[in-house]
């Protein structure tokens, strides 16, 4: 009985042990397209009478070959080992059929080759028929494999059924995929949520709004979660900080900040240090901020400052001075950490800058360009005046684009791994990583943490091989920041950094619009400051353009203001007339709190006794030191922050030429402060070393030299 077959265009058939699709019928000819993409035309009568011909009841989708458009070599390299082995064995058979040798080269013949039925002298047709008989295939199939192999290489011999790539999204509507991506982008800054509840509801609302209610429906809940996991790098249920961080990444290739010499590009940034500091006076802990300067060319940490939470502009301005100031050696540091161990011409540098004699092994660099963040302290008048004075270019990074400063951002991660994690009181970089008893573990004060960090920078970081630094000509050899600095000096040379003895005072902010010198002194922030030096300038018009006198102040210590005498070119200290003691910290934070208390009591800045009211409010705040257990948390933090900021101000002032102090009044009684007692020196205390007690070396002043 004859078997009848009906063939139509787009039908799938089995022919010569491969699947084909009918792409066209013209009279007695049939055009076929194999699953591997090979086209052929055959007579219809020849096709129907072939023993390998079979019709298929189920059609194969036209996109069966999911490897179309991919790199064949890449797909082949990632296939399972057994699939690649089968393709290589088939290739060896074809080589033997075409050349007589499985390797394809008679010089690489195996034992017993060539076999009698594959002698190169035999016709190619005979060898192909012998191979077809050996493999149990039709000769036509062997010819077809040879043709595909010569055209597409080894990839043509891979079994497509086992090399078929899976597309888990092939049954998902493209409109659903688009809606998921758009909704994820819309709420990338939102709080985390469940994929199956809020995110699913919002995605369905987006589909209804774009295509009409009920037109496009989301798949089932389990399928929806699987699709979201496949499409999104960060799921809406992931921590919000991770999604926000990913959203800050630019949608283009990252740029590279390249520097060829020390100081060419210096990056500044501030970040919370992942360590809680302990305040023994308040028996409380508080957060700390780390501000540092990184040289891109050598990856050296040039300067750093640890402050209570809330870095000010004056801290950034003085950080620039720290970059050009040597780091002093500590008494308990090894001699191997001295500047002279940097493998640089130390004696030559010492003749230029005598401060390097007692300096630690940390580069001293003159910055050319500053790359800083969009923080308010970095854009202050203090920082701009400092850069203008030293001829430093300023370049701000884009807002919320940490990739503009990748070097310093990565440095913060290194500091976390190598330093912060190993300090008692480590609290993790977010709440999810914070321990339960962090406050109980914190035991180091801010000054102690600062000393630990200085030792880490000089002893560890600057001497550790850096993956971003390479020995010139040997890209596989990493070097340390100190070694990179020593090498850079050979090509770029040493640049002497400016040393201004009045640097501290010149960086201080100036009272807006200047001040008039009245009979009672000068008024600043509703506080009156006075000193004998002002007597000769009272009610006098200044030589400055607006006729007012510039009065500088340090917001970290409002007990004093500073006045520059143009007659002797010296700085003078102005003292607040209502100050009780120079030992009590009085910062801008305390002043704001005192003003708030006065305002609550009905005080008016226009009243003549307003200054006395502020002094009374300040005395009330100071008296609380006798009973800190009654303080609120905000009071304790303000007290701790004030004390540390006052200490930092005293250290910065000590590094400059001392200003002329205010002489005490002869008939004034000594100030009395509760709970303050003189403590005698302990035996052997003179042997302790305080780096802040070192007096600065004499520096040549061009003005003084010209006058003499």
Secondary-structure blueprint of this entry?
Elements: E1 12-15, E2 18-26, E3 29-34, E4 39-43, H1 44-49, E5 54-55, H2 72-77, H3 81-99, H4 124-135, H5 139-152, H6 160-163, H7 174-186, H8 195-211, H9 221-231, H10 240-247, E6 266-279, E7 284-295, E8 300-308, H11 313-323, H12 346-352, E9 369-372, H13 381-390, E10 393-396, H14 406-418, H15 438-441, H16 446-459, E11 466-471, E12 474-479, H17 481-492, H18 503-507, E13 522-524, E14 527-530, E15 551-554, E16 557-565, E17 570-576, H19 588-600, H20 610-623, H21 633-654, H22 702-707
Parallel strand pairs: 6-9, 9-10
Antiparallel strand pairs: 1-2, 1-5, 2-3, 3-4, 6-7, 7-8, 11-12, 13-14, 14-17, 15-16, 16-17
Helix pairs in contact: 3-4, 4-5, 7-8, 11-13, 19-20
Description:
The protein is 34% helix and 15% strand. With 708 residues, the protein is of the alpha+beta class. It folds into five domains: 1-64, Roll (SH3 type barrels); 72-163, no CATH class; 174-247; 266-492, 2-Layer Sandwich (Nucleotidyltransferase, domain 5), CATH 3.30.420.10; 513-654, no CATH class. The strands form four sheets. Strands 4-3-2-1-5 form a five-stranded antiparallel β-sheet. A five-stranded mixed β-sheet has the order 8-7-6-9-10, sandwiched between helices. A five-stranded antiparallel β-sheet has the order 13-14-17-16-15, covered by helices on one side. A hairpin with a 2-residue loop joins β1 (12-15) and β2. α19 (588-600) crosses α20. The chain is elongated. Residues 660-669 have a biased composition (Pro residues).
């Amino acid at each position: 009985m004859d078997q009848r077959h009906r063939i139509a265009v787009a039908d799938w058939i089995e022919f010569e042990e491969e699947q084909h699709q009918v792409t066209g019928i013209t009279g007695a000819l049939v055009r076929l397209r194999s699953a591997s993409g090979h086209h052929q035309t055959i007579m219809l009568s020849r096709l129907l009478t072939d023993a390998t011909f079979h019709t298929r009841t189920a059609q194969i989708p036209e996109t069966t070959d999911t490897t179309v458009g991919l790199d064949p070599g890449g797909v082949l390299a990632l296939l399972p080992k057994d699939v690649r082995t089968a393709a290589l064995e088939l290739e060896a058979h074809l080589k033997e059929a075409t050349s007589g040798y499985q390797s394809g080269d008679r010089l690489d013949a195996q034992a017993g080759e060539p076999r009698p039925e594959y002698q190169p002298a035999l016709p190619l047709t005979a060898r192909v028929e012998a191979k077809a008989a050996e493999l149990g295939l039709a000769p036509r199939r062997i010819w077809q494999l040879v043709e595909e192999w010569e055209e597409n290489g080894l990839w043509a011999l891979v079994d497509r059924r086992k090399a078929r790539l899976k597309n888990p999204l092939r049954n998902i509507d493209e409109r659903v995929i688009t809606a998921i991506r758009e909704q994820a982008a819309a709420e990338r800054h939102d709080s985390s949520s469940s994929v199956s509840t809020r995110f699913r509801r919002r995605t369905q609302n987006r589909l209804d709004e774009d295509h009409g209610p009920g037109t496009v429906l989301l798949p089932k809940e389990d399928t929806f979660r699987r699709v979201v996991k496949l499409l999104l790098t960060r799921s809406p249920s992931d921590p919000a900080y991770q999604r926000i961080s990913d959203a800050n990444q630019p949608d283009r290739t990252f740029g590279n900040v390249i520097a060829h010499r020390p100081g060419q590009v210096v990056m500044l940034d501030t970040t919370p240090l992942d360590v809680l500091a302990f305040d023994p006076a308040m028996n409380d802990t508080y957060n700390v901020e780390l501000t540092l300067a990184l040289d891109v060319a050598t990856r050296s940490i040039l300067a750093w400052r640890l402050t209570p939470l809330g870095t000010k502009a004056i801290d950034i301005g003085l950080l620039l001075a720290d970059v050009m100031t040597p780091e002093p050696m500590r008494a308990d540091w090894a001699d191997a950490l001295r500047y002279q161990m940097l493998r640089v011409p130390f004696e030559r540098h010492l003749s230029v800058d005598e401060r390097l004699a007692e300096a630690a092994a940390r580069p001293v660099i003159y910055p050319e360009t500053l790359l800083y963040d969009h923080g308010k302290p970095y854009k202050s008048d203090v920082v701009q005046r400092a850069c203008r004075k030293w001829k430093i270019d300023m370049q701000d990074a884009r807002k919320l684009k940490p990739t503009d400063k990748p070097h310093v951002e990565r440095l913060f991660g290194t500091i976390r791994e190598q330093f912060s994690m190993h300090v008692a009181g480590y609290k993790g970089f977010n709440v999810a990583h914070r321990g339960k008893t962090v406050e109980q573990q914190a035991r180091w004060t801010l000054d102690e943490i600062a000393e630990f960090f200085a030792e880490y920078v000089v002893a560890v970081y600057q001497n550790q091989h850096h993956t971003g630094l390479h020995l010139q000509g040997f890209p596989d050899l990493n070097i340390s920041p100190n070694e990179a600095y020593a090498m850079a000096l050979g090509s770029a040379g040493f640049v002497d950094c400016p040393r201004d003895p009045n640097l501290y005072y010149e960086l201080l902010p100036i009272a807006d619009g200047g001040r008039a010198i009245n009979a009672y002194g000068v008024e600043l922030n509703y506080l009156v400051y006075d000193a004998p030096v002002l007597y000769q300038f009272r009610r006098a018009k200044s030589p400055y353009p607006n006729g007012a006198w510039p009065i500088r102040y340090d917001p970290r210590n409002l007990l004093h203001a500073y006045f520059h005498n143009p007659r002797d070119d010296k700085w003078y200290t102005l003292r607040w007339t209502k100050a009780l003691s120079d030992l009590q910290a009085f910062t801008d934070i305390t002043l704001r709190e005192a003003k708030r208390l006065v305002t609550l009591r009905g005080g008016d800045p226009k009243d003549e006794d307003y200054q006395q009211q502020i002094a009374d409010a300040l005395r009330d705040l100071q008296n609380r030191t006798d009973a800190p257990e009654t303080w609120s948390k905000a009071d304790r933090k303000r007290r701790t922050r004030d004390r540390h900021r006052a200490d930092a101000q005293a250290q910065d002032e000590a590094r400059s030429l001392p200003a002329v102090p205010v002489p005490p009044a002869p008939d004034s009684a000594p100030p009395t402060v509760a709970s303050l007692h003189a403590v005698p020196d302990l035996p052997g205390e003179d042997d302790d070393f305080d780096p802040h007690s070192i007096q600065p070396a004499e520096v040549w002043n061009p003005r003084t030299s010209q006058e003499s």
